[in-house]
Specification:
Rossmann fold; globular; binds nicotinamide-adenine-dinucleotide
């Protein structure tokens, strides 16, 4: 039921904006559902000799602006409804940052921690065999997402190239550097989030040193956001992962926390790294506590729907930078708005990953290496422009930032359809 709501909510948001834009009924009909949702079974021969069968999905929402584009996640929460919702968000995200891609999303319903490396490789290759005829450099280009990484992309691109009978690095992004991966791709989403944070800082004139941050999720996105925000001088006072988090009053160093997590396997016990353990300075917290902390900026960078109508009234942050996809439900958004909290929408804040994926796709097609500095510079410019457009429209029309971002993105897709 909750899963069903994720798609229905995303669809409802689209229809609201479509009505504001007075889109033709035919355009609304086409965009309110994905072009296709593929569901399939992937058998994996487990180490103990038994076969386990996992359910996989690939959803392709729209290719009006260019080939379908979107990540593949390995998580028990993956369902048809969730990939449908996320594929639609990808269409809006690519349109907002003005890159020539459409929207897609995929995944496998699996707890990857239950699989060893060989089983994970079989699952990844099995996924590609099932979607082979639907994907490709000019059709649909998958990338990493929750619990998938460059190694998984390397297995996938290798399987794709074998089936195709030719080396096809442009069929996937988020690949390891030696397989035509792009320098800067791994940190791009977190880096992009900090570009947005800096634009917010410029707009409201706050000082990084006096600005506190709480970040939920310390995976690819959360940890890179933390690293770049720390480098900019922001004070990170709380971090959390699935199994809980830490609060450090005087601020923590993300690099040291990463090292500690490597050693301990989780961040829960890492609040006293680099200092003497003292309950006055640090303590363990739950994910719920992190969301409700008194901070300037709250950064949900883990999973969707963590801020709901149940906890929205308890959120004390002044700003929210949505690094996860759909971390705020629409009911919660109304409550946050009434409280005067400014939310930077996911399709803007976390668009760094797909923007740099576009650069990686260009690099893989041309087989010509890009330098990291060039990648991050171009990324900053793209996101700064998108922020200015969203901010400008929100001021001009006196509407919130999400509405402005959706209006810009959906209008671009609809105009392309008309053409
Ligand atoms: P990841 O697998 O690297 O990390 C996920 C993190 O979230 C981990 O720290 C995990 O412990 C934590 N987590 C999982 N469930 C949680 C829960 N219930 N409560 C609190 N923490 C929880 O994934 P990622 O690539 O960092 O992606 C994080 C989010 O960002 C996802 O919503 C993803 O769709 C979105 N996103 C990722 C990218 C990208 O480039 N990786 C791009 C755009 C958006």
């Amino acid at each position: 039921m909750v899963e069903q709501n994720i798609f229905l909510n995303t669809q409802k948001e689209f229809i609201k904006i479509a009505n504001l834009l007075k889109l033709e009924p035919g355009i609304v009909e086409e965009l309110k559902e994905p072009h296709r949702l593929i569901k399939f079974q992937i058998p994996v021969l487990m180490d103990k000799g038994k076969v386990r069968v996992f359910t996989g999905f690939r959803c392709q929402h729209s290719n009006v602006l260019g080939p379908y584009k979107g990540g593949i996640r390995f998580s028990e929460t993956v369902s048809g409804q969730s990939v449908k919702a996320l594929s639609m968000l990808m269409t809006w995200k690519c349109a907002l940052v003005d890159i020539p891609f459409g929207g897609a999303k995929g995944g496998v319903a699996v707890n990857p921690l239950e699989l060893n490396k060989q089983e994970l490789e079989q699952l990844s290759r099995g996924y590609v065999r099932k979607v082979f005829s639907y994907i490709g450099p000019e059709k649909d280009i998958p990338a990493p997402d929750i619990n998938t990484n460059p190694q998984i992309m390397a297995w996938m691109v290798d399987e794709y190239s074998k089936l195709k009978g030719e080396d096809s690095p442009a069929a996937f992004t988020g690949k390891p550097f030696k397989f035509w991966g792009l320098k800067g791709r791994e940190e791009a989403t977190g880096y992009g989030g900090v570009v947005i944070l800096k634009k917010l800082q410029e707009t409201f004139g706050f000082k990084p040193k006096e600005t506190t941050l709480a970040i939920q999720g310390f995976g690819n996105v959360g940890s890179n956001f933390a690293r770049f925000a720390f480098q900019e001088g922001y004070k990170i006072i709380a971090l959390s992962e699935e199994d809980g988090g830490i609060y450090v009053l005087r601020g923590l160093d993300p690099e040291q926390t990463l090292q500690c997590r490597e050693e301990k396997g989780k961040i829960a016990g890492c609040y006293c790294v680099g200092s003497v353990c003292d309950a006055n300075f640090g303590k363990q917290i739950t994910n719920e506590q992190l969301l409700e902390m008194k901070v300037d900026v709250l950064v949900p960078a883990a999973v969707e729907c963590v801020i709901t109508k149940e906890n929205a009234s308890k959120i004390k942050a002044k700003y929210i930078i949505e690094m996860a996809n759909s971390p705020v439900t629409s009911e919660a958004e109304a409550i946050l708005r009434d409280k005067g909290i400014i939310s930077l929408p996911d399709i803007l804040s976390n668009a760094g990953g797909v923007t740099v994926s576009y650069f990686e796709w260009l690099q893989s097609k041309a087989k010509k290496r890009w330098q990291k500095k060039e990648v991050l510079n171009k990324l900053s410019k793209t996101l700064e422009k998108a922020f200015d457009e969203v901010w400008g429209l929100s001021k001009k029309e006196n509407i919130n930032l999400r509405k402005a971002a959706y209006l810009l993105a959906i209008d671009r897709v609809a105009k392309a359809m008309k053409k």
